[in-house]
Write a structure and sequence with these properties.
alpha/beta, six-stranded mixed β-sheet, 9 helices, binds 4-methylsulfanyl-2-ureido-butyric acid
Length: 334
């Protein structure tokens, strides 16, 4: 049996701090145009697709910060509407990241999955927030996600995507946002719900603060870009492999404001962990493939047959303990 589906991971290039929504939306529509020409049914977009990665900046709380967020149904937000309307016109489902402000004034790093008829099928809020709550001193840029967002509270919910005609009760979809992809817990919870396609968007700086306060470790260099790209692929490939799923992984990339570099490496990974399509630029680019959802099942029925091989009764430590507790040190080795 085959259950074929054309899917895409849209990479979005540089967005400066003053790039207007309208410009980004037109670029996103151009990516949808390409997808439509190819008969693609699902396009995944990056984390915080519509704006520059604002958590790198120190922004005062209140209206100045809140202008980066959207309240209410994001598909009805005027500047974004042309994008969602075009996706609906083309009959393309989209998964898109944005900054969400709730009616209770809670801030989340969120992605929505909107089906080809324009229905909001699922909302996901980033669970693993990286970076800091308080700005670091002596660093050329910040990573203030812990300051600007609350930790996600919608868990990792897999859901069925209707209307694709691929049988088997409809494709099973899961969402992750950026740093979530580094944590096997996220993937396994989706894997345990049978997720067949995991949609991921990311903003990964070319270089990071390795040790807080050490500004010297934040320089851009080819080796740090290569390492960041290696870690990206490592996470996507291994986690797709042991959960027997496809992943669509979309980068926000380019050099924002002429100085903030984000890695590219938008990829589509298959259930064997193989990269089957990958971006070639660090600009707007549509990465696509025709996938066979049924290829999730041979490994699910054998090497990664969870019901047969997993040992949840032995995993207590994982749920009961948060940090590392080392065995007592050996006296004569001190
Ligand atoms: N956006 C995001 O989550 N970026 C992280 C890098 C954070 S380093 C402080 C990532 O996992 O790519």
């Amino acid at each position: 049996m085959t259950r074929l589906l054309k899917v895409a991971a849209a990479q979005v290039g540089k967005i400066d701090i003053d790039t207007p929504y309208e410009e980004v939306v037109q670029r996103m529509i151009a990516l949808l145009d390409q997808a439509h020409d190819k008969g693609i049914k699902l396009v995944n977009f990056p984390e915080l697709t519509f704006t520059t990665f604002f958590p790198r900046h120190i922004i005062p709380f209140g209206p100045e910060l809140d202008k980066w967020y959207q309240k209410g149904d994001v598909t009805k937000f005027d500047p974004f509407k042309p994008f969602f309307e075009k996706a609906k016109e083309y009959g393309i489902a989209v998964c898109v990241g944005y900054a969400e402000l709730t009616d209770d004034d809670e801030h989340y790093n969120t992605s929505v999955f909107v089906d080809q008829a324009g229905n909001n099928l699922n909302k996901y809020r980033k669970m693993f927030l990286p970076g800091d709550k308080e700005p670091l001193e002596n660093v050329p840029w910040q990573h203030l996600e812990k300051r600007y967002f609350l930790e996600g509270n919608l868990n990792w919910k897999a859901f069925r995507w209707p209307g694709t005609g691929t049988g088997h009760g409809g494709p099973i979809i899961g969402q992750l946002i950026c740093n979530d992809r580094r944590w096997p817990e996220s993937w396994k919870i989706l894997g345990l719900q049978g997720a067949e396609i995991v949609c991921i968007g990311y903003n990964t700086p070319v270089s990071n603060v390795v040790e807080p306060g050490k500004a010297s470790q934040m320089v851009n260099s080819d080796s740090s870009e290569a390492m960041a790209t290696f870690h990206n692929e490592l996470c996507l490939q291994y986690n797709s492999y042991h959960n027997c799923c496809y992943s669509l992984c979309s980068a926000r990339t380019g050099v924002d404001d002429g100085k903030y570099s984000l890695i590219a490496g938008t990829t589509i990974v298959d259930p064997q962990g193989v990269i089957i399509a990958k971006s070639k630029t660090n600009e707007d680019e549509l990465v696509w493939a025709e996938i066979d959802l049924d290829s999730c099942y041979p490994p699910r029925n054998r090497a990664f047959n969870f019901a047969r091989h997993r040992r949840p009764e032995e995993y207590k430590l994982i749920v009961e303990q948060k940090g590392v507790k080392e065995p007592a040190p050996l006296e004569d080795e001190m």
